[in-house]
């Protein structure tokens, strides 16, 4: 089992090497992302292992198929960057459905607390021996309303955390969980009632720019928007306008629509071309982290173990419970109902 591993970061190596050796999966680590320009690197490999910003569009899927690549192993939960419809019948696609929802939910709360209690400001001030408190006034989370969009694995953990803070929680989900004790409301009502909005749904055609100009207009003045899910859930231009108009009180972003060009890289000595991102970062009430919500030891080990297990299971036993399939109509249903290859 020879796997071409794209977009390799130093933190990937220990866990993937360890689990790869244990299961007989041999990785060749490439720093470059998978894209139409780099798909030729997959020649001679049984599979590719990709992350959130690798481009696996129809052209890349065809390129992999032509080269005899049999599997695309995503080492993440989201799969919006893969043309799964195109892959069906050509290349099998696996993902890591769950690996520590706590990592992401806890990061969302860390961003929220940092923002509303101005910890990022205070940290910089005291480093320079500035002990003034002026401008650092925050607000209590206790008693405030959190609007959670997407009540799956991560959204539910975030709800528990919010409840621990004494917040009232309302939620919107296209598929509300029955008997969950969660108060579901329509999306518009969620925008109108929430003091804090946190996004935990996948990026699909339907959820693209879910937070747009209209949504921002419906929000409460001073709303705090937290996004640890996928950047394109938010129209970044509309968010920026909302901040400039003082409608949005703060934004906490672990993901950004155009992140593929900048996130995970050191641009400290360079000029950032993306004006919207640069302007957002310059705002005192915006915190940006570069897609690091998943980055805990527990999550990294879980990701590597499941990804290697997906690959080894597929080639050894001819099945993978985490296969994504379009034949069923719903991408993840095979995982629940079938115990064999999707095609
Ligand atoms: P999940 O699949 O357990 O939950 C997603 C929820 O969204 C489900 O309840 C589903 O019904 C709901 N949903 C689907 N379509 C919807 C729609 N149109 N409107 C509203 N809700 C909808 O997924 P999980 O594990 O909770 O992950 C959520 C998202 O978090 C992932 O899709 C991924 O994009 C993101 N993520 C980000 C990470 C990071 O490091 N920043 C790491 C891991 C995941």
Percent helix, as a range, is 25-40%
Total helical elements: 12
Radius of gyration: 21 Å
What is the strand tally? 13
Structural class, by secondary structure, is alpha/beta
Largest sheet properties = 7 strands, parallel
The end-to-end span amounts to 20 Å
Bound compounds, each kind once, are: 1,4-dihydronicotinamide adenine dinucleotide
Low-confidence stretches: none
Strand order of the largest sheet: 8-7-6-9-10-11-12
Share of residues in strands? 5-15%
What is the H/E string? Answer: EHEEHEHEHHEHEEHEHEHEHEHEH
Mean pLDDT value: 95
What general outline do the C-alpha atoms trace? globular
Description:
The structure is a single chain. The chain is of the alpha/beta class. It has 12 helices and 13 strands. Strands 8-7-6-9-10-11-12 form a 7-stranded parallel β-sheet, with helices on both faces. It has a 6-stranded mixed β-sheet with strand order 2-1-3-4-5-13. α2 (58-66) links the parallel β3 (47-50) and β4 (71-74). α1 (13-23) runs parallel beside α11 and α4 packs across α6. The radius of gyration is 21 Å and the shape is globular. The model has no long low-confidence stretch (mean pLDDT 95). The structure holds 1,4-dihydronicotinamide adenine dinucleotide.
